[in-house]
Amino acid sequence: MPNNTSALASLLPLVGAAALTVQGFRRLRATRESPRASRPAPLQPKEVPNPDLRPPRRKKIVPDSTCHHCGTSIPGRETLCTPCERLAEGATNSSATTALHWLVFLVTMTAIIGGGWLLSQ
Ligand SMILES: [Zn+2]
Predict the structure, then answer these.
(1) Could you tell me the distance, in angstroms and rounded to a whole number, from the CA of residue 66 to the centre of ligand 1?
(2) Is the pLDDT reported for residue 6 higher than 80?
(3) How many folded domains does the chain comprise?
């Protein structure tokens, strides 16, 4: 008999979920069937013209310049064209930098893992 009671008790959440679902469907149907015109329109603030309306700023037109490296025509403020910038970045990112990054990574991981090993002793 206690087994039957516990089985019935375990069904209660399912019954509750089914009741909520049915109630949700009823509400959804009610909102779909009711005409929307019966609801009052939400109040909107009136549009007031901006009193100090200035003319929009114009972009300064900068004359095109040339790349310092290869002489290609590029937009105003830049000094290097895109291929020359990539070449310059590639020159600074050398294999020594990568080796240094690996060294720092290995030292950091050794410190973390070694510290964990020492703490576990
Ligand atoms: Zn260039």
Answers:
(1) 8
(2) no
(3) 1
Q: Report residue 102 as tokens.
A: 């690996």
79 and 72 Cβ atoms separated by less than 8 Å: no
Does residue 14 fall inside a structural domain?
no
What's the whole-model pTM score? Answer: 0.28
Residues in CB range of 39: below 8 A, 6 or more apart = none
Average pLDDT over residues 27-34: 82
Report the C-alpha gap between 74 and 85 in whole angstroms.
12
- Which pLDDT tens digit goes with each residue over 42-82? 788 888 777 777 767 776 677 788 888 888 888 888 888 88
Secondary structure (DSSP) of 34-78? S-GGGSPPPP-PPP---SS-PPPPPPP-PPPEE-TTT--EE-TT-
Say how far apart CA 113 and CA 29 lie, in whole Å.
61
Q: Which domain holds residue 67?
A: 63-91
Is position 73 within any domain?
Answer: yes
CA of 79 to the centre of ligand 1 (A): 8
Distance 64 CA to ligand 1 centre (A): 14
